[in-house]
Amino acid sequence: MNTYLPGRSWLHLLPASVKLAGLAAAMVALLLVDSPTGIAAAVGVTVLLYLTVGLARALPEQVWSLRWLVAALVVLQALTAGWAVAVVVTGRVVVAVVLAGLVTLTTRVVDLLDVFERVLRPLRPVGVDSERVALVLALAIRAVPVVAGLAAEVRDAQQARGLRGSVRAYAVPLVVRTLRHADALGEALIARGLDDSPPLRP
Amino acid sequence: MIEVRGVTHGYAEHDVLRSVSATLTERRIAVIGANGSGKSTFARLFNGLVVPREGEVLVHGLSTRSHAAAVRRSVGFVFTDPDAQIVMPTVAEDIAFGLRRRGLPPDEVRRRVFAAMSTVGLEIFADHSSHLLSSGQKQLLALCSVLVTEPRVLVCDEPTTLLDLRGTRRVLEILQALPQQVVLVTHDLDSVADYDRVLVFDEGMLVADGPPAAAVDHYRALIG
Question: Which residues in chain B have Cβ-Cβ distances shorter than 8 Å to A12?
Fold first, then answer.
């Protein structure tokens, strides 16, 4: 998940709903691409989009973060279906993720959540709480750097105690600290009035 | 005004608060005591995070037991660990997040967010990633996210414990300048010198209650 980069490009100025609709349309179009030439064209359009919004420098990082997935997909697809299919399938995934990254780089999370809330609002009569869904999405996004930070601290502590390589010495404190964080976060959300559930009791 | 009437509360068989009563009307109130003395549980009574097993807590006449949501709208709470309070990826988004359920127009949300950021000096970090801030800046963000909701009372549970000297000073200065009633739970005895009233807790009981100098002396004597 990318962090929003402030800017005044045409993509920054587009409403979040239009960007998400465009992203969905691009995903459908990608599914229809079935040749390496088509994938090359999709890659070209994606690069052009990054260039026109002034975020070309962010593109290599986006692609590099997918290196292990790309390696696994290419090998698997090449062995089972041949090189042409490997290029098409892997290309689809890379272009889709990089395009989604462009949306998150140019859109505030609050604006994305507002769109999700609006889209889900008609489902309220069947029990879907759109505000709660948006809150869960926000927390999931926030959890990535928090859990990564906890993992780094646990790893440092593990190494300081000479327990490098011990799965238990790594996993147990990480799970405990993550659960403690979740508990504290829940309490903070209630304190901020973001949850209308009954007050906590021992 | 906060009224605590005969509150006893505990977890399992252990009482962390025992027959505590107090009426808090002063603008600056500090709560001190050793770890496990019950001061944090006492602070959590004020916005309904803890509902007492016995007794009652009234905030501006509203019971935290029966009017928890209304009480929480008037009592802001700042925790020790700012990481547990930050929800959104950027500073301005996190501050605005607390206003989501208030049904305010976007312009009003923007005005309030900027005003709150200006209060604590975070306006230059509006679009910064919230998890990349320093501990001091994160605590200011947590404070700001509470202030934006314009609470009548602000309760802070050891907000400076994880901060360096500069961060501690900044937070304390901001708290001192606020127009709201502030209840500060702290181990920093120097920081309570300018407060109107200091409550001392020991083993779940309110053992001293008065001006800072007398209350701190009592606490020092208690610890030995």
Answer: none
Q: Which residues of chain B have a CB within 8 Å of the CB of A181?
A: 83-84
The most distant pair of C-alpha atoms in chain A lies apart, rounded to whole Å, by: 63
**Interface-testing mutation among A107, A110, A130, with chain B (most B C-beta atoms within 10 A):** A110
Q: Are B142 and B86 in contact (CB under 8 A)?
A: yes
| Per-residue tokens: A17 | 């709903």
pTM exceeding 0.90? no
For the record, the structure tokens of B157 come out as 């549970």
Question: A80 and chain B: CB distance < 8 Å anywhere?
Answer: no
Does B153 contact chain A (CB < 8 Å)? no
Phi, psi of A110 (to 5 degrees): -55, -40
pLDDT tens for each residue of A177-192? 999 888 888 888 888 8
User: In chain B, which ranges are continuous DSSP H helix?
Assistant: 39-44, 68-74, 91-97, 106-120, 135-147, 165-177, 212-223
Amino acid making up residue A202: P
